[in-house]
Amino acid sequence: MSLFLPVPEDILKPKVHRGKLNAKGFRFAIVASRWNDFLTSKLVDGAVEGLEGLGVFMVPGAFELPAAAKKVAEGGSFDAVVALGVVIRGETPHFDYVAGEAAKGVGQVSMQTGVPVMFGVVTANTLEQAINRCGVKAGNKGYEAAMSAVEMANLYREIGSRGEEQELEKKAFPHVV
Ligand code: INI
Fold first, then answer.
1. Which of 94, 104, 162, 170 is catalytic?
2. What contacts 90, CB < 8 A, 6 or more positions away?
């Protein structure tokens, strides 16, 4: 005879939280660079397609994206920020500094502000690679970043409301929690 009670299978399964892809009711900001504008504008078009409640903020180059994203995130008016730009490798190490700072900075802003900031910057070795990632052969990285922003905004809302639920549980059942 088994000493163990049968446990319903679904109790053992962890609940997987995945942000919905529904942009309704959220506000999104796009920060985009003017460098390589003929391509960056395609990323902005792609992102705009997937978002609502939009504010678009232009900066000179990808290097300036993190600072502008931080200002926007700290303003408290937006649920997520999408940073868009195109950096193409040239003959000098300049690419590495610009692309590196943009990537690192965007990540830092996300962590520091608690507002999800997407990295929708195309970093390409050639002009052809960049063109393909701005809506030609390899998708539109602006649209993809926008979808990630929608997913993260939904997920953050869910995580936040789970925290509130737990606070209520603690108040209602202090002897249990
Ligand atoms: N900015 C870009 O967004 N893409 C590039 O390809 C680029 N290149 O090649 O130089 C670029 N440079 C400008 C940089 O982002 C800053 O705006 C500038 O250095 C002033 O801080």
1. 94
2. none
17 included as an active-site residue: no
Q: Determine the Cα angle at 117 with ends 107 and 42, to 5°.
A: 115
Could you tell me the distance, in angstroms and rounded to a whole number, from the CA of residue 126 to the centre of ligand 1? 15
Instruction: Assess if residue 4 is contained within a domain.
Output: no
The residue range of the domain holding 86 is 26-172
pTM score of the predicted model: 0.87
Residues 136-177: pLDDT tens digits?
988 999 999 999 999 999 999 999 877 666 777 777 777 665
Tens-place pLDDT, residues 17-65? 889 988 999 999 999 999 999 999 999 999 999 898 899 999 999 999 9
CATH number of the domain residue 106 falls in: 3.40.50.960
> Are 109 and 117 within 8 A, CB to CB?
yes
Does the Cβ of 61 fall within 6 Å of ligand 1? yes
The total domain count for the chain is 1
1 occurs within a structural domain:
no
Alpha carbon 55 to its chain centroid, in Å, reads 15
**Residue bearing the CA closest to ligand 1, atom 14:** 61
